[in-house]
Every structure is written in structure tokens, then in C-alpha cells.
Amino acid sequence: xxxxxxxxxxxxxxxxxxxxxxxxxxxxxxxxxxxxxxxxxxxxxxxxxxxxxxxxxxxxxxxxxxxxxxxxxxxxxxxxxxxxxxxxxxxxxxxxxxxxxxxxxxxxxxxxxxxxxxx
Length: 119
Known about the structure:
The chain is mainly beta. 0% of the residues lie in helices and 61% in strands. It has strands spanning 2-7, 10-13, 18-26, 31-39, 46-52, 57-59, 67-72, 77-82, 91-101, 104-109, 113-118. Strands 2, 4, 5, 6, 9, 10 and 11 form a 7-stranded mixed β-sheet that branches. A 4-stranded antiparallel β-sheet has the order 1-3-8-7, with no helix packed on it.
């Protein structure tokens, strides 16, 4: 079992920055990638960014050039640096870890952290 705990959310004005952190603990073996997702009120949960164990990254088009995902394996922590924030970035942000064992994938989620961007 993987435990994920997000922190760093808050209220920020448009154009500002925030850095989210995700502390990872538990059975971290076989994690193939980790990522950030977000869910705005009344909307589905969407992918924001992912990072593999080898450091390859992937971003949603809406955040490319503004957000940076990174992972510090020594600290078992993943980050999401968010710059040039927009009101449409307002959402609950969730940390995700995906494992594949014996060909079967499983996802672990954090409890989420609220990000609110005021105009």
C-alpha cells in the first residue's frame, strides 16, 4: 500500500505561484509513474502532469510552460511548481501513484489540497 499526503495549497492571486508537495510512504516498489490531477467543482478529475521513475514528464496542454513536475527520490517527495496561475487553475489537486504488479495496475491517491486563484 502506498500512502500519499499533499500539502502546499492555498489562496493566491492570478499571476502568482504555489508549490505543491506530495509525501510518499509505504510500499513504493513497482511504482511506474506518479502524477498530479485536479478536479474543479462539478467537473471530472483531469490529468495535470506525470513523471516516471526515469524522470520523463508529461503535461496537460493547459499547464505547459507554467507548471513543472519534479520528484526527489531521496526525500520520497514529488512536487508541482505552479507559476502564472490563472483563475481556471482553481481546483482540488490530487497526488497519484500508479503501480503495476503481475500485469495488474493499481492507483493510490492522496486526500487532495485546495488551490484557489482569485482574479
